[in-house]
């Protein structure tokens, strides 16, 4: 089930969406069976782009922030899902430690932390926030707008456990994506549940693994629905060992971009789509959303290469010019909120969709990354229609849940993340 | 977690409620541990009476109706909980058959059935309604207000399975309390999940078993909170083999009523409560809410006995005058909605509280049964306060969730029902 939220998109339901709405019982059963075999991430958020003719997840966060952008109406759903998650992992839990990012001055981020504390407190846990920022040496209470506050306390590490002074948690929830590397203080904690696992951190995780898992998931899901998996899966390729500043690997990158643009052009022709193909180039590792470059033509790469060589490093909004890169089919977004280009972000706790919002950027075009400074967030409200979609209702009495499709795609990305975490688990036992 | 609903009661928080609010993490952990050992009923509703100084469940339904009295806002919570319930019982489920009561002309009841169909459809199942009413010989579509409809179809029984024509369910959900006896058509179904189990039906179930289990639960819970379990448990006694029309057993009943009134008087004195004690007398079996008699004095019994003997049968609002009776401590309700005496009803799906409403009766007094014709239903809305209870918030910025306490008591009754079902399971394996 996906809550019925009001989407910006209100146009006619196209073939793909209709197929998804009609297949709801089969789809829900498919997810139930997946979760019998695989463990969902503790929590996640997925950015989705809907081009109308196709839609796809473009980013899957395993350390979701922005919980404060969900409406208060969604809190009960998030709390109920949090309860289910805790019950499964550690029913004896009393104390939960949340480890946030080290942005102790960003009140937007801290409002997200406060929201997480609230969710898990309402789920019945004693929740405290432990900072791994060396600058936090004593408890620091930060007042937030609307009368909220967050108290950051310095973590205390003993030989085998991590906690706070007089607070010994059984579960530690990371809201810190560890993109700067895994700090030793969170390593070798074998007595406590550490969620998500350390190999979900961005210093270890690789986008290519996720995309590979998602491709597999989309093929199986496409089979279930009898659709071309391309309709929900952006094609991609990996260009390893590129260093544009050194002029290394440009040929590899160019040939990948060229090949992918050709493939997209072919698909567009097959489906009679009258749009200009584009790809996005981003680093294989790192959560840095600044490093996403839209490439509409191989010539763009030459200009980019030139800038990288002359300036020695990538400028804003361009990929870090060295390392392993991902070339991914670009997916247009044709949703608009207040005249700004928008993309939905779906929030999940355990295997449940608990809410979502639109990321909107007034100064970006439909083929550009929106996750950069200047973006605003518009919560998706619950539908106030008294009549949720139901079979057999009089025409007009029932509005379809347009958010359902986003919830399905969000969960497909979550299944892919689950496969990805299994495949990359350093502690996995191997059976030969 | 219990959703934050607006209660009618807005007075100061008394000691008991404060204790419950303060103990939330311990309480939630206690429930989690209970559900590790015991299976919650698939769905349930609990009538609660809050006298201020004490509160208690007065009726626990394992075939809850009235789902249509919950607000639409609560649908997502119910659906999410339904998903969790299905996943646990039968993740492979595709088809669910709902078996309703045989009231095919009561559109209020049918609106409840329509709501259940909607909840389980949104949880991702193909749902159909199979009537066991012999009068339903072919599919009958009944239009309901607001454009809804319910299609009642005759059930088809094969040797080992129950279904509809061309519809083979893996799970059968009873919304029929079987008070008229267990029909053969639902017996010996060993290949399908039948929920709740047949021994939950009112032709088999005994209130005394439930009260006994609840007493046990309230003692353990009282210990957890450090409170006198009487504050949440109405005392009771069982008077077997009474037949007032025949003048049989009146002495036993009278002595039980007298003893219980004395016990209550003593408790009221202990707590300095300036109210008149009363007891309710009801049949040990049967869901018939008509058969609940308020007794304030043993003399009431003589008058009742006289009426029973002269008229040969109990009149409206009086107990069936024969069989096994329960004498239970009466709990006042001091909630009022629109000047009518009100009692909250808490709805649960699996182990989750998903909503509630007030049952209101303008013509009844605070010590009388409200569950009789003439009652109306006022949904409890979600709190619109942007600030749910949270520790550390500025005074005034956070309102306590007054519905939380009701959710706790509802769940205690649910734990008791779980114990009761285990203790009375005819198929339970006995280990010696």
How does the SSE layout of this entry go?
Two copies of one chain form a homodimer.
Chain A: H1 15-22, H2 24-37, E1 43-50, E2 55-61, H3 75-89, E3 95-100, H4 107-122, E4 126-131, E5 140-143, E6 149-154, E7 156-157, E8 162-163, E9 171-175, E10 193-195, H5 207-225, E11 236-243, H6 250-271, E12 279-283, E13 292-295, H7 298-311, E14 322-329, E15 335-337, E16 340-349, E17 352-361, E18 376-379, H8 403-424
Parallel strand pairs in A: 3-4, 3-9, 4-6, 9-10
Antiparallel strand pairs in A: 1-2, 1-16, 5-6, 7-8, 11-14, 12-13, 12-14, 15-16, 16-17, 17-18
Helix pairs in contact in A: 5-8, 6-7
Q: What does this molecule look like?
A:
The structure is a homodimer of 432-residue chains. In chain A, the strands form 4 sheets. In chain A, strands 1, 2, 15, 16, 17 and 18 form a 6-stranded antiparallel sheet that branches. In chain A, strands 5-6-4-3-9-10 form a 6-stranded mixed sheet. With 432 residues, the first copy, chain A, is of the alpha+beta class. Chain A is 30% helix and 23% strand. Chain A has 8 helices and 18 strands. The model of chain A is unreliable at 312-318 and 384-397 (pLDDT under 50). Chain A is globular, with a radius of gyration of 22 Å. Chain A has 3 domains: 1-62 and 206-234 and 331-425, no CATH class; 70-203, Glutamate-cysteine ligase, N-terminal domain (Rossmann fold, 3-Layer(aba) Sandwich); 236-329, no CATH class. Chain A starts with 14 loop residues before the first helix and ends in an 8-residue tail after the last helix. Chain A has helices at 15-22, 24-37, 75-89, 107-122, 207-225, 250-271, 298-311, 403-424; strands at residues 43-50, 55-61, 95-100, 126-131, 140-143, 149-154, 156-157, 162-163, 171-175, 193-195, 236-243, 279-283, 292-295, 322-329, 335-337, 340-349, 352-361, 376-379.
């Amino acid at each position: 089930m996906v809550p019925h939220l009001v989407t910006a998109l209100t146009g006619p339901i196209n073939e793909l969406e209709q197929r998804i709405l009609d297949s709801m019982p089969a789809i829900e059963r498919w997810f139930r069976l997946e979760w019998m075999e695989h463990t969902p991430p503790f929590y996640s958020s997925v950015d989705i782009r809907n081009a109308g003719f196709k839609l796809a997840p473009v980013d899957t966060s395993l350390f979701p922030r922005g919980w404060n952008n969900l409406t208060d109406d969604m809190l009960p759903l998030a709390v109920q899902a949090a309860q289910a998650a805790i019950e499964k992992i550690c029913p004896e839990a009393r104390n939960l430690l949340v480890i946030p990012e080290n942005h102790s001055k960003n009140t937007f981020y801290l409002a997200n932390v406060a929201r997480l504390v609230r969710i898990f407190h309402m789920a019945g846990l004693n929740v405290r926030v432990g900072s791994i920022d060396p600058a936090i040496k004593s408890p620091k209470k930060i007042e937030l707008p609307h009368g909220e506050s967050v108290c950051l306390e310095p973590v205390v590490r003993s030989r085998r456990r991590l906690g706070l002074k007089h607070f010994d948690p059984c579960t530690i929830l990371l809201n810190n994506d560890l993109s700067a590397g895994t700090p030793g203080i969170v390593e070798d904690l074998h007595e406590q549940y550490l969620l998500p696992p350390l190999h979900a951190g961005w210093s270890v995780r690789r986008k290519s693994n996720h995309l590979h898992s998602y491709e597999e998931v989309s093929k199986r899901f496409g089979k279930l629905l009898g659709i071309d998996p391309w309709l929900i899966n952006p094609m991609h390729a990996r260009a390893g060992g590129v260093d544009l500043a050194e002029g290394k690997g440009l040929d590899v990158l160019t040939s990948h971009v060229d090949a992918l643009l050709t493939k997209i052009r072919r698909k567009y022709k097959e489906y009679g789509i009258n749009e200009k193909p584009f790809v996005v180039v981003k680093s294989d590792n790192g959560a840095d959303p600044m490093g996403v470059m839209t490439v509409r033509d191989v010539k763009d790469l030459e200009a980019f290469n030139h800038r990288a060589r002359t300036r020695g490093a990538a400028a804003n909004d361009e990929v870090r010019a060295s390392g392993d890169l991902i070339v991914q089919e670009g997916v247009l977004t044709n949703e608009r909120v207040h005249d700004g280009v928008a993309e939905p972000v779906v929030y999940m706790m355990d295997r449940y969709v608990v809410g979502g919002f639109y990321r909107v950027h007034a100064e970006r075009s439909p083929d550009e990354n929106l996750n950069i400074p200047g973006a605003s967030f518009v919560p998706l409200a619950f539908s106030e229609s008294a009549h949720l979609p139901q079979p057999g209702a009089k025409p007009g009495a029932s509005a379809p849940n347009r958010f359902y499709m986003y919830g399905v795609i969000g969960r497909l990305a979550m299944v892919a993340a689950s496969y990805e975490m299994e495949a990359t688990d350093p502690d996995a036992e191997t059976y030969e």
